[in-house]
Amino acid sequence: MSKVSFDNRLMFTYESKSFPGVNKVAALVRQDLSLVTGFHAGEYIRGCKCRNLIIYGTVDRSDYLKELEENGLIDLTDVRGKWEVYSFQVIDQPMEGVDHALVIAGSDKRGTIYGLFHISELLGVSPLVNWNHVYPKKKKNAFLTDGVNTVTREPSVRYRGFFINDEWPAFGNWATEHFGGINAECYERIFELLLRLKGNYLWPAMWRSNFSMDGPGLESARLADEYGVVMSTSHHEPCMRSGEEYSLLRGESSIYGDAWDYVKNRDGIIRFWRDGLLRNRAFENVITLGMRGERDSRLLGPDASLEENIELIRDVLKTQNNLIRETIDEDVSKVPRQIVLFSEVEEFFYGNRETKGLMGDPELEDVTLILSDNNCGYTRTLPDRKMAQHPGGYGMYYHMDMHGGPYSFKWIGATYLPRVWEQMTQAYDFGVRQIWVVNVGDIGTQELGLSYFLDLAYDIEKWGGTDAAITQRYVDEWAERQFGGMLPLSGRNKIKKILWDYTGLLEKRRHEIMNSDTYHPLHFGEADRVLATSLEILKEAAALRKKVSEQDMSAFVSLLYYPACGTANLMKMWILAGRNKLYARQNRIEANDVAQEIDECVREDAALIEDYETVDNGFYKGFGKSEHVGFVNWNEEDNRYPVKHLVYGAHSPRMLVSRKDDEHYMTGLEWCDHPQTWRDMLRPDVDKVEFDLISGSDKPFKYRIHTDCSWLEFSRTEGEVKKRERITLSVNKALLDEKVTGVFLVENIGYGTATVTVEAAPMGGPEGLYLESDGYICIEAEHFSSKGDTAGAGFKVLTPYGRSGSAIKVFPTTSDFKGEKKRPFVEYRFLASEDGEYELTFELAPSTPVTFTPEQYIGFAINGGRIRIENTVRQPDIPFFLSPQWAIEARDNVKKVTTRVKCVRGENTLTFYGMSPGIVLERIILVREGVSLPESYLGPKESYKCP
Amino acid sequence: MSKVSFDNRLMFTYESKSFPGVNKVAALVRQDLSLVTGFHAGEYIRGCKCRNLIIYGTVDRSDYLKELEENGLIDLTDVRGKWEVYSFQVIDQPMEGVDHALVIAGSDKRGTIYGLFHISELLGVSPLVNWNHVYPKKKKNAFLTDGVNTVTREPSVRYRGFFINDEWPAFGNWATEHFGGINAECYERIFELLLRLKGNYLWPAMWRSNFSMDGPGLESARLADEYGVVMSTSHHEPCMRSGEEYSLLRGESSIYGDAWDYVKNRDGIIRFWRDGLLRNRAFENVITLGMRGERDSRLLGPDASLEENIELIRDVLKTQNNLIRETIDEDVSKVPRQIVLFSEVEEFFYGNRETKGLMGDPELEDVTLILSDNNCGYTRTLPDRKMAQHPGGYGMYYHMDMHGGPYSFKWIGATYLPRVWEQMTQAYDFGVRQIWVVNVGDIGTQELGLSYFLDLAYDIEKWGGTDAAITQRYVDEWAERQFGGMLPLSGRNKIKKILWDYTGLLEKRRHEIMNSDTYHPLHFGEADRVLATSLEILKEAAALRKKVSEQDMSAFVSLLYYPACGTANLMKMWILAGRNKLYARQNRIEANDVAQEIDECVREDAALIEDYETVDNGFYKGFGKSEHVGFVNWNEEDNRYPVKHLVYGAHSPRMLVSRKDDEHYMTGLEWCDHPQTWRDMLRPDVDKVEFDLISGSDKPFKYRIHTDCSWLEFSRTEGEVKKRERITLSVNKALLDEKVTGVFLVENIGYGTATVTVEAAPMGGPEGLYLESDGYICIEAEHFSSKGDTAGAGFKVLTPYGRSGSAIKVFPTTSDFKGEKKRPFVEYRFLASEDGEYELTFELAPSTPVTFTPEQYIGFAINGGRIRIENTVRQPDIPFFLSPQWAIEARDNVKKVTTRVKCVRGENTLTFYGMSPGIVLERIILVREGVSLPESYLGPKESYKCP
Fold first, then answer.
1. CA-based nearest residue in chain B for residue A697
2. Residue B204: left if φ>0, alpha if ψ -120 to 50, beta else—which one?
3. What are the residue ranges in chain A where pLDDT is below 70?
4. pTM above threshold 0.80
């Protein structure tokens, strides 16, 4: 067994013929190692003695590698000529005087760099070591054996990177604070981060900054190339020129003219593009083609026809390709180029019945077509079979940060990994493998989502697949990597739970669009559950913080405490605001206390940002600056914090009796009270009802609960209520042998008496069926009673996933059963209480149709009847993207398809079929005709199924 | 000229054969005189010398009168045998040794009493002298000459009185505090008040008190009879027994049985009734017939048919009449009896198509049929021609206090006299002349309305008629009578204005149903106007108070300060609450200041009640106790004070630009702002627009207003705004010669710029036409351009009247033109801006159909087209009373009849015809198709009419 030890005798080779960026990365790795071992590795001088040596280099650019290969000590056959591959070998006595060596041989610049960073990875150094000051666990006797020897595969996706966007106020302030601007010094930090995360491709910041002018000058671009970072530009910035450049260079006397107008200022624009290509041609780039209006607007006015737009773009493409032939390579197919089908450009690409789109245009032949998500993490169109063979391949422009419709989210990273897993794995299945680029805004607090996105792109076999639980493994490993050095396992396990909890809250509703009306304060206990999760995050994170050393605080705050507590505190604030509003509407005196709690949350919101921005001597200063509360427009304009509601109590003691999950209440007053009937305990699984005695006055009331029913028990039957008291009503169901009805009275002594009728039934019911109660049946999609697969496909359960934590989906994801006769299916069995119509709602993931045609079908049948096929697209006459349906679904993170079915009293079977690709079913809800479900965001809890 | 002086030599006769009540009243008058003159009149002993003598007595019950008549000194021909008539004569030397005398000769007990009180009246003593401690103006040389000699007419209405009702908490607490209960001592105060106000009839308090049991015993009834007060009972208390009596006397061993059930406990009930009649037969009564359930509920269950109900009532009436024959008079027609057609009893009386009602039943032959109002001061059915000849005549049960639907009002008297004038004069015209009884709740603060009601009933020729301005004369006189002694004329004139202002506010909306949503905080300036009136009342009343002496404070507070300021403060509170709510919704930082102002109002509400209840050593203690804020049910249950809304400002300076009358605002922010166009100045009468610069943050913003338009002027163009600044934009229209359009910008310096387009046009327009602007035309009904009367009838303008201050109505009020060919009409001329459909709304007084048939028609025509007749009753298939329409109209005090008409571009004429009786038209609004008027309670201001 060969072995290399990371002791005080470790050395690194150095070759001046190496790529300079590779040598820079080797220096970074040496720093990493010193954090682990405490020793600073020396530099090896050929011929000297050396106990442990790290030999690194790029194939055909390293004398060491040449020598080792010639000596048969390493085999570079599987490396040479590959894309970003490296060989990683621990061997003994590679050279005279050297005892043990680790030999890293990259197929190219980045292959070598990834190979070098692989050492850090194996020694437990986080890729975020310098980005978040994540200190690795110290090791006394660090070593690697030949057990780690490997030759890597090419990455799954060719170009993998991110987009620094929406950079004000957060990224811009951060860069200015630390580097004096968005310059090369700043980008060096970004390049390191990108490479450590196994990315290779970058769209630089472009609002009020110019990558190739601000380095100063070309310095940022030069440095990128040195590091092997492939630069590109965002969707509306052609020919390697930043979007703002033109506005700086234009003018009446400018050689580029004074109009961003390809028709009227054709010569000036062409010259502008040519000069951009000439300027940056020395570097590795992927060149954006096409043209949009200034500042990401439409190119032609709203009156221009589709054909006019398309013709203009065709002309632009032709011109741009010619410019590339002229300036870079006559064989334009060798020059990486892309066009991004974002916003209305998607329509230009597909065209419509009358007008042929750009698809198939020879100018696009070898150009990568970058598709987009719906701005919120669900991919829009994917390549259909006809498109699949496009030689330029496909890319995906994905959003973890958004400044645009349907709503902006720029504050704390809000990415829930299962969504990325599900959507990006599917995109890969559909052939999107050339470029993956994710908009991460200011990067700060996006680390978890970004890490996963790039790891998935690098190795989809490892992190993709058909089991959503892979994301749990990912989070486990990620948390170990970041927090392994700072907390014991019990603490790290708490961190993993917090990571899931806070991103889970955001999967239900993101920060900016949370408000007091999102969750109903009482119905189905949804607000209480969100609040409980939030409070637990705040409590656990605070407890963990006490155990973290000062050195580790930077990583702890930036990667956990701030994003988790910032999120939890915001959710808490809005839940309390909703509660306050409802309480005030009901004149509960407690509303005034809740208003004070809102104050505390508002203060805490500011305090958490201040904490994040001051920890580690202001290492993250600037990253907390995005507005994030109470958006009423798509962006932060006119946003507002909660309104506090304060009430005056009634003049005399006033009682409100209210179930804890119902906004209706009784007062017990003589004339206008509405006695209630509680039927919960007809459910076999319910033997308790909690209700509140609430004061509507500053004057407390005295109460007494009376009943003649021996089977009713109360946690308390008399007392005085100042604000609110919760009472538990329970029934010992073992004593019941039939349905019973009873009455109890709640007396507000001296003022009135409220009357409640209670119905209860014994345990039990027909085996394996979901039971209707209160007029509805709700079933989690994962709880089918049986399933049937076809030869090649079938439903699988996704856990974790979506708003409710699980879902089902057909795999392979590309399967389309619309035109098939045999389809995979799942079956659900339930007991309806009446013959008649039921409103049937399928809650689906808010995916968009996988083709540009606005069609996405589901199929179902009731009680073995004919299959019914419904298009989930509600307005097929308009493009789905930017439709009202898109906006609602993207905000609420659910697609609801509602129809009506006839059920029979007794057992019913609902069959759900595989149909269009991309359908993810989360829940099924049936509501009896005439019943109105209480208003809520997440809907009812799952119905009871008799065991 | 004969003359009697009220000097220190004044004496009163005394005859023991006089009615004791008459002598008691004479004693009261002697007290009154001493307040005026400072002298206590002595008692005259026959044969003594006397300079000035008051001789009083009842015809055929006084030796003095007999002697004077025999001596030819007085003539009693026109008095003898009359109902409540008196002769009032100043003569010289009536008897030996007597120089001057005032001789009062009443036709009966009450005639004499009214005659006696007439002295006080002539000397300026208020009828409220003892009820409100109204001190008269002192007079040095008080005298009366024969210029006042008169013989009165019989009163217009035979029985005139009130109902003490809904007596807890106010009246009950007051009575307990001052008299230890609702007993004879208490009633003596009430009887005096009633007689001084020229009433003669009373329904006593009946919730938890029993008039004929609590005196103690019969004492209250005996005392009533002594004073000449005719006792009756309310609508559901037959046979002179109080509603609660049965519950006190019932029981298993009771002679009356133990069920208020005429079928199952017939003997017990009959015995109960018989004993009541026997007990009270010695006194002057009007006996209530019929039967309802206990505590004013339905007699039979909800399942009983109309026929079953009617048959039962027929049986009850027969039994009751027989009991009266047995106990009081074999000739039952001589016994005053009544039945009240209240609640569902109205339906029993009219029956329906299948079932003949009680109308015409021989048992009701001589029984007065008491009709009712709609609970809010608008009469329900009136006698139609067929019914007019009913020998028992008709009565009216009217409400100035209500505990019931559609809403309760029990706090401060909320009666606007023109409503009473219009409705009760009309009722009189329709033959309702036998009994007028008004529910005045606890009486406290009802004095103005009650005075007018009884004065109108006493002398409808004086206070009725066809000119609403009579109510202004009434208020003038009333105010002089109450405040003449305490303030100079300028102060009294202010008081008159305050009386109109506060009752005018209540005519728009009563206290209990006021809330933050009633008036729109901005639209059409309606809330500002209500607030301005309220603030002026508060300011003027406080200023007046400083001038009032301690002695006069009792009357000042009870009759003016408390009802006016209590009302104004409550209106102010709700206007501020609405403002606060809107401001908070808009995130104006000023919302927080407004919340504090609400606090002040809530405290002031309590302080005003405390003031009223402590003034004059607690003379009114108890009367302020009714709940009066924020009713959400028909009664006070679950009522609530305003919710205060508090906001957190935005993090950075934020500007809102808002017209003062529009809830839409601009922020000037980059992406989501909506630039506005202001067209107000297209109106010939508008050359100014006021708008607000508002801060949405604790951080002030700096602004600058820019424009290139020389014709736009601003009251200020730059500054800093902490909360709000009002800017006036004006145009010198004299300089315009055509329509112009301009733009101005409001810059929030450093943050954004809002853009406003202004359109303006020169003065002028076609003469005499109302002009459309912003898509509507609004015309006050009084502003017709021409009118046409028929031979006997025509429209007259009512001023003051209703929500907007004026209206029109056809007189005589009994005219019905539904079946006529010639109808009176009025015409309105207006200029429409487009050809097309307009929504036409007639705002009418919320009167109910005058017959039981749910039909009440209006007629109109547009541009000389065919007359269109519309039934104002929206659901003619259900009885109007208790219909949803009734409830809405009674709350909002307006009936809106909406239809559509086709207008032509240019001049149009709308003709409104006399049709059903009882129609009162207040306003007309035309809205162009596609235009939505801004939401408001009172609607737009009247459109401009070119002079």
1. B640
2. beta
3. 296
4. yes
